[in-house]
Design a protein that fits this description.
By secondary structure, this protein is α+β, with helices and mostly antiparallel strands. The chain has 13 helices and 37 strands. The radius of gyration is 28 Å and the shape is globular.
Length: 658
């Protein structure tokens, strides 16, 4: 028996050694293949250095860094055209220098930008003697691109002699509304603008930070090094190359509609709003139309429709098939580069929060000199319908008002003392003034729930995959049955102000049913754009643990933290309804247009004599042009703990206005 076990052990040892020796060459062959693939494309991978331009906002500890260091590009041909990521130029550099694989450096100029796929075309002048040494990259044929294939992300931001390499697989196609391939290789500013290649060194696409919710150069950077990276297919780049070479900028194609459904994956593309003078308006589309197909391709959900429109550029003409009154119809629509700014109509009331036993929407406050006040609506009235459409919730009322226009009359049916009445209301623009006073919140006392979520001051809160800690204050009066608002304060880097903020906002939270989150950057030096991902995760965690009122979620920040609050808000539009920016300009990106389906009110605390006047006034102008309801609180030499908290509190408490 002992002899048997001895032989068995020898056999196991032999097999283990054999397996180990067999694996080593395989690993070595893999590494050799990766290096060979990289060397095949290396002559086309260039290093890009930028000089001058904006790198941060603020100073000292109050900085928001928006981009530094060398970046990467892909040399397309001997004519000197280089395609790269627009992220590499958001700081608007005064000079661009390109270093080839051969070690020679050239000045470069921007020829054109693809604002849809966030690509920029550069041009360098290569002398004829050097042109015959330029090797054009080989593209992977579109029909050979398959999920699960090796994908290598290549950059050239370190010593020119050796490109940097990150290995992964292709994890998806047609991402970001049909515009990108997805890879789990690590993508970061080290390789933005470089090629994503296959195991033979052929090019799948150009690496760019993309986001399904943004179309600007800083979009998607929150995912860097996360295993979620994107590349614009090289075939799409080559298809539009001649347009870019001619100096023509390309823009996303817009149609000018909003949808009734909130679930893009399952809800049908039922139109709720058609923007005035938009392509959809000119093509004759109307609210309640259901889009069935685009250029003959069937679409059954909002997501499928966006997949069809996402890859298209402004100026392209599409055929829409839609359903109206149970009959299919067709219309041609030419996508636009811009839409007229959308302005949310204003009725002039605050509704009673929560559910009621009444089949309508009770009024708890009527704005003075508002359309509702002029029409005779009063506190306690029960709204039954707007423009002949029944309303029982704030969501229904807002959806119906979004279909209407400023300065256009509509009928509001309401009930008063058991009698049904009809008032004609001429809707106005959303006001920028803050109400002088608001009625107290009437709440029904509830016994404490021993199994409910924690209340009080909760410090040292963490999200598992992040090093940050945050503080969270939950009033003892919090009740799951009454969803609470949320105020998320972003603190300036390196400043310990959490206790001061809790002291300043504690009474407001108790009186107005708000929760308070205090969030700080990981570094004491600056907020990083990539920390948007952390902030989104915190909000998601709080949504899971507490009953939050989706109409009263607001973000606030002071100076560089305010710039970060802008960035978070515009990358999380579906959830954030209010933004308070104190002495903070918008930095590093252009605000997207105001949208019917995503309400956002903004309050800016501003010192007209402060040192950031020019940047802040530029932000104010950009927001007003896009028709955001913007409240400006002028305050001389404001400080984080010396704000007009009472006015800001009333502003927060009226985010669910109608």
């Amino acid at each position: 028996m002992n002899r048997f076990f001895s032989m068995l052990l020898l056999l196991v040892a032999f097999l283990s050694a054999t397996a180990s020796s067999a694996q080593e060459p395989i690993g070595g062959l893999e590494e050799e293949a990766f290096q060979q693939a990289m060397q095949n494309v290396a002559p086309s991978v260039v290093k890009i250095d930028t000089i001058g331009g904006l790198e941060t906002t603020g100073s000292g500890r109050n900085q928001l860094r928006i981009g530094t260091g060398p970046t990467t590009g892909l040399l397309l041909n001997a004519d000197g055209y280089i395609i790269t990521s627009s992220f590499n130029f958001i700081q608007k550099p005064s000079q661009i220098l390109v270093t080839l694989d051969l070690g020679k450096r050239f000045p470069a100029q921007i020829i054109a930008t693809d604002h849809s796929r966030l690509l920029t075309l550069l041009k360098i002048e290569i002398e004829p003697a050097l042109q015959n040494q330029i090797l054009e990259p080989e593209p992977v044929p579109a029909e050979e691109v398959e999920v699960g294939q090796w994908s290598l992300a290549i950059g050239r931001t370190f010593p020119v002699a050796q490109p940097n390499l990150s290995v992964g697989i292709l994890s998806a196609k047609n991402r970001i509304w049909g515009k990108a391939l997805q890879t789990d290789a690590k993508i970061s500013p080290n390789n933005y603008g470089g090629p994503l290649i296959d195991i033979q060194g052929r090019v799948y696409g150009v690496l760019v930070p993309l986001s399904p919710s943004q179309d600007q150069g800083i979009a998607g950077v929150q995912w860097y090094d996360s295993g979620i990276g994107f590349a614009v297919p090289i075939q799409d780049v080559l298809r539009t190359l001649s347009l870019l070479q001619s100096g023509e900028d390309l823009y996303p194609g817009l149609i000018g509609i909003a949808f009734a459904g909130k679930n893009e994956l399952f809800d049908p593309p039922l139109i709720s709003v058609v923007r005035p003078q938009s392509p959809a308006n000119e093509a004759g589309l109307l609210p309640d139309d259901v889009i069935l197909a685009v250029d003959g391709v069937k679409v059954e959900s909002i997501r499928e429709l966006k997949q069809q429109i996402g890859p298209r550029y402004a100026g392209e003409t599409l055929t829409f098939t839609y359903l109206r009154d149970d009959a299919e119809q067709k219309t041609k629509l030419t996508l636009a580069q811009e839409l007229l700014p959308y302005e949310h109509p204003f009725l002039g009331i605050l509704p009673v929060r929560g559910t009621t036993e009444n089949a309508g929407l009770p009024i708890r406050y009527v704005y003075a000199e508002s359309p509702a006040a002029d029409a005779g609506l009063e506190v306690g009235d029960l709204m039954l319908s707007i423009a002949e459409q029944p309303v029982t919730t704030l969501e229904e009322a807002r959806e119906q008002i979004n279909r209407l226009k400023v300065d256009v009359p509509c009928e509001v049916t309401f009930q008063r003392s058991g009698k049904t009445e009809v008032a004609t209301v001429k809707l106005a623009s959303l006001p920028t003034e803050i109400p002088e006073e608001l009625p107290p919140i009437l709440r029904q006392p509830q016994p404490a729930d021993p199994n409910g979520p924690a209340t009080g001051l909760l410090t040292g809160q963490k999200i598992p995959e992040f090093p940050h800690e945050y503080t969270f204050y939950v009033p003892a009066t919090y009740q799951v049955e009454e969803p609470a608002g949320l105020l998320a304060w972003l603190t300036p880097p390196g400043e310990e102000v959490g206790d001061d903020l809790v002291a300043q906002w504690k009474d407001f939270c108790e009186e107005r049913n708000f929760l308070l989150a205090i969030l700080s950057p990981d570094s004491a030096e600056s907020w990083q754009p990539t920390e948007v991902n952390y902030l989104k995760k915190v909000l998601g965690e709080l949504e899971n643990q507490y009953a939050l009122d989706p109409h009263r979620i607001a973000v606030a920040g002071w100076r560089s933290a305010g710039a970060m609050a802008f960035l978070w808000t515009f990358q999380d539009r579906e959830r954030i309804q209010g933004l308070i920016a104190c002495e903070s300009p918008l930095v590093g990106f252009r605000p997207e247009d105001n949208m019917p389906e995503m309400r956002l009110a903004i309050a800016m605390v501003h010192d007209p004599e402060g040192r950031r006047v020019e940047a802040i006034e530029g932000t104010i102008e950009a927001l007003q042009v896009r028709k955001y309801p913007l409240t400006i609180l002028n305050q001389s030499e404001p400080s984080l703990t010396d704000l007009n908290q009472e006015a800001l509190g009333r502003w927060l408490d009226s985010l669910d206005r109608l």
